[in-house]
Amino acid sequence: MIAGYRLLQTLGEGAHGRVYLAQAPHGGATVALKLVPLPSGDGAARAAFEAAAVVARRLQHPGIVAVHDAGIDGSVGWLAMEQVPGSDLGDHTGPGRLLPVTQVLLAAERMARALAYAHRQGGVHRDLKPANVLVDWPGDIVKLADFGLARAGDSTPTGTGLVPGSPAYMAPEQLAGGLPTAQSDFYAFGALLFQLLCGRLPHEGHSMGELLRQVAHEPAPELRALRPDLPAELGALVARLLAKRADQRPADGDALAADLRSIRQALARRG
Length: 271
Hints:
The chain is an alpha+beta fold.
């Protein structure tokens, strides 16, 4: 039992905690209950979790996993969320497992609209990556999960005092210690889109130091150098998303979604 929720079974485990199927108090409906360990005595982590929970509960959008309730029980933060069937985009990021390009673009368009909504509400995802995009293709579901939780949970250590997150998807300004913004979310979006289309990340260092150096200083590979079958417009869009300077990336998720839609429709016309 956590905060009156009865844990029924484990659904999954990620960088920021474990997710259980749980029954709400007093015999209520079943929910997905995420438990986030909070270091004992770490007031900053508790405050960060509470702030992330406030934002997450405020985000009500069909492309974002709904958070019904949240709180802290001892040294554990908890989020009671809607159950989402299916899996996450991690199943489609390796060679031999890639989705059709039009399906990637359709999912990306919906993700961009969800980000646009969240940014208007003052939310920044901070940790956009395949594991945080839940999909159920038969049910036509694409949803972003774990908004803002990177600031409260553990991250991959780098020894450089970085803000929490997943370094392979973090923008250069975040790696330099800057605050996450909508534009850093778009950089992560670009890395995720590149991975879904090419089966690899734009930067893949053999060590953490090499990865950070590449992200900070080396331009991302051109998309069409790896996938010459893709349209030039898509290559240009991904290059904008992965620009080193934040002001060179798309400024608005709705405009990004419109660009993705235009590319997808052009591909459909070409057959």
